[in-house]
Amino acid sequence: MALRAIKGVESITGNCYSRTFVIGKDKGWFNISSIQDKHYLKVDISLPNIEKLATILSNIERMFDINADTTTIQTQLVRCGVPEDKVVTGLRIPGVWDTFEAGCRAILGQQISVKAAVTLLSQLTKELGETQGEKLYFPIAAAIANSQLGFLKMPQSRKQTLRLLAKHHLNLVGSSDSPDTQDASVDTWLNIKGIGPWTVAYAKMRGQSCPDIWLNTDLIIKKQMAKIKIETELARPWRSYLTLQLWSMT
User: Which helix (H) or strand (E) holds 22?
Assistant: First the structure.
């Protein structure tokens, strides 16, 4: 997770993860710490509108995949063909704040390394993200839609796709802070030039934490499948974890 942290928005130190967030017109931040000897997470949240606390807590719970049945998932991964000595113990889906951020991550990460993708995300945030005191926030859709993105060193076609996603998101959900409203738009992304099934699936896996997303067109997954005999149907309904497991084995 540390390798994918957006500079200024997310930070990881020791057993603590911190990030800022935007929900509707409100801005806030949270810290989540692992209390290992007691097996629980401690959460500190700062937000101006207490009425949104339940929504934020629910989203944090999803982001950290707290309710995952890791024992059942691990058994299923071995059953479908993952070598037992390679299974990642306690594997969980590393969620991001919302589907829009997940879509931006997917577009900026096309055909480049994780490190290069995070550099682009950090540049995007530095240039277009709002600040409040010392806090920096991931850019809202309107900021990206209205920018030419000239500061990003990537193909013009990819910049256009990012702008189109932002415009699409803005037109469809506006300033709604309802996760259901935002998530409902993801399948319609396929109408955007430059976005295909992989990007939509990735956004569902990391932005919605869907447990059964199988990224079979992913290059790394294809390479792993050529080396290991996996019966993917036996991994249902946990194929997102199979995807993450195979990624971890590179």
Answer: strand 16-23
pLDDT one-digit tens code per residue, 106-154: 999 988 888 999 999 999 999 999 999 999 999 999 999 999 999 999 9
In this structure, the number of other CB atoms found within 10 A of the CB of residue 146 comes to: 12
Q: What stretches of the chain show up as alpha helix (H) in DSSP?
A: 53-63, 70-80, 99-108, 114-128, 141-145, 156-173, 179-183, 197-207, 219-227, 239-248
Residues pairing with 132 in the sheet: 135
Question: Token pair of 89, please?
Answer: 């113990």
Does residue 174 surpass a pLDDT of 70? no
Closest CA to 28 of 101, 133, 103, 104: 133
Q: What's the pTM?
A: 0.91
